[in-house]
Inverse folding.
């Protein structure tokens, strides 16, 4: 398993990370992802550790906290062998302060995650979304205090826009507070918006991409093709779960899947393995979060490492998934002499 620096920090993470959104399966949204109990989660953790995958990502909102609880039990007795990343900010209760990135909520959220995970520190703690109702200074000072208290080792954000992230980094620099070293962002062959502004920012400011939904919200599993019905087991069969993910035009999806199928035939690799391998060769990517309902899916995803697509295959996938970006990005592409693409 390859390890990479996490942004501008001295911390290394494996290029694959197991997401725990499939742990618990509470409520229609998460039931559509999966429903691993403690026994199955423990087996998945065992397989990951055998393969050198030591990083596990969760959130306090996954199955109402059950995912963190199950992960905590699955790693019991081997905390020193794993890297834990988790997230907070989304609503965690009915009260007016049970949501957001206020000092009040962040401290409570971290304490709750520590308790559910059965640990006294979190390796990477990320704000799950930007909170425009809380001053950036308040959120970052709270995170800085939690790092100084030893409850968090590194901090990151998730689903921020470019100005959200850049403003946060500037505030951290102004006050000498801990800075974001990771941005957990959606990025896939059928969702390349990350490349337009967030990728150049990440490279310039040394913020590592922690990629979520590398298979495009379950669309690049190799089971969805033109003219074929949805597979019997798919999160896309749930209207609630499907609505919670990124929209994708069908013809665009099929064009990308056709390219993936062709390269799968050439390489003998599966469609998910190719889609993940493509991401691992993209600039700024530190680690890709894989999800697995079961051992079979996990082992297939683990097969995405240890080899590399050729430059020609990468170019074909790039071409198949290319879209015209919005302004001002399409305009900047016309001035490549001074605005070269990220490398």
């Amino acid at each position: 398993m390859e390890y990479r620096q996490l942004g501008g920090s001295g911390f290394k993470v494996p290029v694959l990370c197991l997401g725990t959104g499939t742990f618990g399966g509470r409520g229609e949204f998460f039931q559509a992802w999966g429903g691993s109990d403690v026994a199955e989660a423990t087996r998945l953790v065992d397989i990951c550790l055998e393969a050198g995958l030591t990083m596990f990502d969760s959130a306090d909102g996954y199955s109402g906290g059950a995912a963190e609880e199950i992960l905590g039990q699955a790693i019991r007795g081997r905390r020193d062998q794993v890297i834990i990343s988790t997230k907070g900010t989304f609503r965690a209760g009915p009260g007016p302060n049970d949501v957001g990135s206020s000092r009040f909520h962040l401290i409570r959220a971290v304490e709750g995650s520590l308790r559910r995970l059965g640990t006294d520190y979190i390796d990477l703690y990320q704000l799950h979304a930007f909170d425009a109702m809380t001053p950036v200074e308040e959120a970052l000072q709270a995170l800085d205090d939690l790092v100084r208290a030893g409850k968090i080792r590194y901090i990151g954000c998730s689903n921020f826009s470019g100005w959200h992230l850049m403003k946060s980094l500037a505030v951290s620099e102004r006050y000498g507070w801990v800075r974001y070293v990771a941005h957990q962002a959606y990025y896939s062959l059928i969702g390349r918006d990350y490349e337009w502004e967030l990728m150049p920012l990440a490279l310039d400011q040394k913020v590592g991409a922690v990629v979520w939904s590398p298979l495009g919200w379950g669309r690049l599993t190799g089971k969805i093709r033109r003219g074929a019905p949805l597979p019997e087991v798919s999160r896309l069969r749930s209207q609630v779960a499907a609505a919670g993910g990124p929209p994708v035009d069908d013809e665009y999806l099929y064009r990308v899947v056709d390219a993936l199928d062709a390269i799968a035939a050439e390489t003998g690799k599966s469609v998910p393995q190719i889609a993940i391998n493509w991401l691992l060769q993209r600039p700024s990517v530190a680690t890709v979060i894989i999800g697995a309902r079961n051992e079979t899916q996990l082992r297939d995803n683990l097969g995405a490492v240890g080899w590399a697509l050729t430059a020609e295959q990468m170019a074909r996938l790039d071409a198949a998934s290319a879209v015209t970006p919005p302004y001002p990005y399409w305009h900047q592409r016309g001035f490549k002499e001074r605005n070269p693409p990220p490398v």
User: Anything to note?
Assistant: The chain has one domain: 3-335. The domain at 3-335 is CATH 3.20.20.100 (TIM Barrel). The chain has a mean pLDDT of 95. Residues 250-267 form the longest helix (18 residues).
